[in-house]
Amino acid sequence: MSSRIIQFGTSRFLQAHAALFVHEAQQSGQDVGPIAVVQVSGASSRSGRVAAFGNPQGYPVIIRGMSDGQPLNRTIQVTSVDRGLSATEHWRELSKLFADEAEFVVSNTGDTGYQTWPEEDRFGSDDDVPRSFPAKLAALLVQRWQASARPLVILPCELITGNGHVLKQAVVDCARLNNVAAGFYDWLDGHVAFAETLVDRIVSEPIEPIGAVAEPYALWAIKRAPGVRAPCQHPSIVLTDDLEPYERLKLHILNLGHTFLAEIWQREGRPADETVRAILADKDIRTRLDTLYESEVLPGFAANGMGDEAKAYVATTLDRFLNPFLDHRIADISQHHPEKVARRIRAFLDWADKARSTSDMGTLRQIAAHYI
């Protein structure tokens, strides 16, 4: 196989999303992969996760849920990953792999993954390991440009609007911080495609040391642009001219619903280990969520000409929330809660207000006001 993929982020999400898709593409006979998984920060000795990615037996992903009205419960042994690397401990090996073999880069570095630290993001020699993910990527790209200047496709999966554009700008800023020569930026513009993407799959539980439990539903939407291509063909991968409809539906219905439930969970003293399914078994909370969708969220979509799509997506979302096989802990959803309120709720209010929604969106405004 010749389409080497370097994946930044060891999250269970990517284990049950991009890496699983590549595995299934391999099983169908496609020449894609293998994947090298990179722990972006921290020491690999903190857990066995990095080393476990080198196990040739792969790792399990359990798919549980409803598909076409029928229960689905199956285990897939994912073997698309051939090694795990720590960026801090295996920098030289990573640099050589990135310069010589990479055809695709995939990333999912969390909600604050594009944060930079100018005072700690310096690089110059081959042994300098900058702190932030954008600076690490910039340093690796500079080494590739110097070594071969071969083209590259970068597929960021962070849930950030315009993620490809935002990541590219962060990389450029880090390169300028380090006084990289002008020719690098010409190469970056002409030969490195930073795609904009949207991902969607509920991955509810980890399996130790690696592996995950996930729902059947999955989406990887990739915006068409010069140089952009998908790493493989897969039913869950969609190339599209416009990501916004996919993004709005996921961000302002599924993710907004999660954040609404996390707000209730935090403020009303709910059980520490409560799941989405369990909190919605409380009839009062289920009614509050249904009312929120009906009276505040759907009018905002209707004002933007997406009423029918949103109504169907709400129904799908509620089915996913009530998946009898998944234990999706609200404690996990509530991580980085203020940032999620900004992206999922405040951004929806702005979008709906601009389109003159018929709803006053009082509940959503009250939540947003707590996190100014």
From TrEMBL:
GO terms for molecular function: tagaturonate reductase activity. Its EC number is 1.1.1.58. It is an enzyme of class 1 (oxidoreductase). The keyword S-adenosyl-L-methionine does not apply. Coiled coil: none annotated. Keywords: DNA integration, DNA-binding, NAD, Oxidoreductase. Residues 316-372 form the Core-binding (CB) domain. It holds the Pfam family Mannitol_dh. This is Tagaturonate reductase. Signal peptide: none annotated. It comes from the Bacteria. The keyword NAD applies.
